[in-house]
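Before the break, one more example. Copy the sequence into your notebook; we will annotate it together after we see the structure.
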Amino acid sequence: MKKRTRAAVYVLVEGAAAVVSLFLLMVGLILLSLSILIVGWLLLPSYVRVLRWWAGLARKRTAAYTGRPVLQRYPPMPSNPTFGDWSRFLTDQSTRRDAAWLSIHGLGAFVAAMLTIALPLGALNAG
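Here is what the structure looks like once it is written out:
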């Protein structure tokens, strides 16, 4: 596959994945607002597991495209975490990094994918 085609396919796949990232970002914001209540704290561990999994898939896609592994460093998740474990775990640097990536990916990759589609189509339409 040509380099340009491969790059365009990667951007389009990331654009489709950005829709999922936007959804997960909205869910995270809702859970963060619900963390005042007990419900938010009960659902946050599952959300962090999903966030780690989704970021791991993105690392695999990026590694497949670039040919270089993207390392992931996470502290181990306790089997029966206490409230202190979860508050420490949720404020960990890796969780904050994944949340920042989620917001940037959800918005940036979607815009990049739309431009990848729209600009060539606009050029064809103008000609």
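The CA atoms of residues 15 and 111 lie 7 Å apart. The first helix runs from residue 3 to 34. Try to locate both features in your own notes.
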